[in-house]
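Re: your question from the hallway

Yes, I did run it. Sequences:
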Amino acid sequence: MLGEGILKGLAETARNAVGSFVSKDRLTTVEYPEERLPLPEASRNFPFLVYDGTDWEKGLRCVACQICEKECPPKCIYIDKSKDKKPDAFGRPQIYPAKFDIDISVCMSCQICVEVCPFEAIKMDTQYELSTDDRFGGLLLDRKELAKSNEYYHQIHPTEASEVDAKLAAEKVKADAKAKAAAGAAAAKAAAAAAAPKPAEAAAKPVVLADAPAAKPQGEGD
Amino acid sequence: MSGSLRDTNLEGWNRPPVIVPDGEGELLEVAMGPHHPSTHGVFRMDLALDGERVVRLKPVFGYLHRNHEQIGETVSYLAMMPYTDRLDYICSLTNNWAYALAVEKLVGQAVPERAEYIRVILAELTRIVNHASAIGFLIQEMGASGTPLMYAFREREKILDLFESLTGSRMMCNYMRFGGCRVDPSAAWLDATRKVVAGLPQFAHEFENLLMSNEIVMARCQGVGKLRPELAINAGVTGPMLRASGVNYDIRKVDHYGVYDRFKFRVPLGDHGDIYDRYMVRVLEIHESIGILEQALKEIPGGPVMDPKAKIRGFRPKPGEAYGRIEGPKGELGFYLISDGGNSPYRFRVRPPSLINLTVLEDMCLGHNVADVVLIFGSVDIVLGEVDR
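Structure:
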């Protein structure tokens, strides 16, 4: 019969239309500004810089190695190295980024920077409501705007953040043991020489990680 | 022969369609696009019309050209991966796979078994997304504003949610790496995928009921835009378009890349090579993809998803060349790389199925009405991001 196929299709439409009143499967609309879907944990949108502790400037994990700047596919990261050094999370004096800008109008949220960072310093954010009326300055984020605390990182990516913390803590234990051994050797040497100057390694104080459960500083001083 | 089409020049933009004198009558020149709603982006067809009939069609593209291949020669191998997402932005995961395959061939990198299975699962999900939306758009162009496309997008949304919870992004996944995949899917993700896949047959069934035997669809599609198999082969057409013309050529069967030789699936073939066959081949491929997904999700082994020896940073392949190709949802997607030992390829070339399938557009459109041109163009299933690169 001519028109049978059309009727069949219309029946399907009717089933969907009626079904949308009873089944959540058929009514999938989310009225966005009023209601929001929860983001999955893996969700990513623009990078940020992680800092430990409470002071964003002191706690930045970034050591301005510029690997992310080099690897960034659209080249949207701009880093200036500092001239001086300051202690990092492990207590070693490190170069820090004097300037760290990300142009998020260019950034494509690919997270290559996160993958190549050897210091777990840059991570992906989840914020997506970032529109601004200033398309140049407003979309060029400097390091102050980019810096976000480790607690925030735990909030948005809990599993990943715990893994990172555990990894950093393990590295720290190793680094401390090494520093201790070096300090011990230096101290022995110093004692043998019966000289006054304190070994430089002993002066390096590890910075306490704010919320790493296993990151209790071990062997501070000696 | 009829009056000639002018070359593209800026003068032509402001003028109304020009009547070209011709021996037997008058031809009308129409520029269809680049802002025509049916052109899937920015694509222009310069038509010469004899009444309603098309006597000449000249495709004009490049409006979305973004230097993809040149970028590939300036950035590192890893940094090119997110750019491949943006080729055919509906199927970013198959693009990732094709590129990863080419680089893996270049350096002789092995891929763990679990990663291969995940790649198959993601590629087949992508194929379903692509075919469902392609059919939705095709029917939309036929005049069914919204309904079929909306049903297709409803299903696509479920799959995109899966992609987002695994890769972090709905469309720009950037997931595959040379020697595996970026993250290991959790058991919860695999369960969620099983649930979505279990719901797909019902969707496919409904989608068929909605359209397949519809008399209007049949009247508009059957016998329109025929593509002869000889021409299809000579023009290098691949994918569902080639199979709709009755040529049995599926790279999953020919190359057995990945672990495709372990799955049982059939290759649907068309008979007439018209729009309806192209539509039907896609519908049947959705069914086959669901079958592959069920098998893959059942057999997926444990283990690592990334070869531990694979290098991420400082990736420098030895000098050489490689061509990696896969059966993308739209056809053969290939990446050709020449390495000179540096950290970026010496030559980076994409073989985009969309562009090459488009080369036969004029042959399919000649003699049909303008309204049919829209449908024929829709049945090719292109994405301008891949055509223009």
